[in-house]
Prior knowledge:
ATP binding; transport; four-stranded antiparallel sheet; nucleotide-binding; ATP-binding
Amino acid sequence: MIDAAPILALDNVTKVFGHGDKQVVAARSISFGLHAGRTLALVGESGSGKTTAARLIMREYHPDEGRLLFRGQPMGKADAKGLRAYRTSVQMVFQDPFSSLNPARSIRHHLERPLRLHQRDLDSAQRKAKIEELLRLVRLDPEQVVAKFPHELSGGQRQRISIARALAVNPQVIVADEPTSMLDVSVRLGILNLLNEMKKELGVALLYITHDIATARYVAEDIMVMYAGQIVEWGAMDSVLDDPQHPYTRLLLSAVPDPDRRFDDTRFDIELSRIDHIRRQAALPQPDVQQVGDNHFIRPMPD
Ligand SMILES: Nc1ncnc2c1ncn2[C@@H]1O[C@H](COP(=O)(O)OP(=O)(O)OP(=O)(O)O)[C@@H](O)[C@H]1O
């Protein structure tokens, strides 16, 4: 059961880049809410608009139309105090854990900085204790890593530091943009498990952005499928993936190697001649919404 009020929401947000012929609608009337203790996966191919959605949430971009709401309040009207609270409450974990950490600074520095900025009442002993707590929270041994520099850690360990840094300010929302795509396959599962634990233990709301449906299914309860700036299908993960209704979602699923799928399972197979047609049609504006299950919706595309 989803808590009715989302912590954070995009409400009919449109973002357009460029002008005239060069115009790209990177987000077309997108709406979704993030709820405490739940993960929403935003899935789509390269260029579908996933990072634009993340940047709108991080307020790096401002909507051309529509609103960003935090605890029901439009952020467009927030005062300086409201914006500060938002910046603390909403944190991001990036794809590349190496470039998001400063190579010249120790792990201690990376965690100390947000604590100094956002938890000013802590004295140095309390800060030290908090850094150790954060490292244990992301399943790293403080003694082993605190004095090290990013290059002395593995990719998976660095991503754990990025997550610890995001957690340092007690966020309510974490936006994770392809957090495992640059990691070895062998350490991906550990990071996904950690995100799952953070959601359960700390009750954060997670937006998990990926092109990989398999990992989306592993971490998220809900899914949105995005194409050409539109969310074409969304709802409960199992409902959407077991019974996809939008031709574009079926196309995405047909490309996923699934070890559980039998060779004679042709449910999502799509004729090659249909693929271009689906992409062309799915890219057109689809203003209508159709409910196809309890918690399952599509924007039907023209035939
Ligand atoms: N700052 C910008 N200026 C102009 N066009 C942009 C800008 N940012 C994104 N776009 C365009 O908007 C569309 C969506 O881009 P976006 O980066 O959001 O996609 P994405 O799904 O995150 O892709 P990827 O998985 O490759 O990161 C693309 O066509 C992109 O070229």
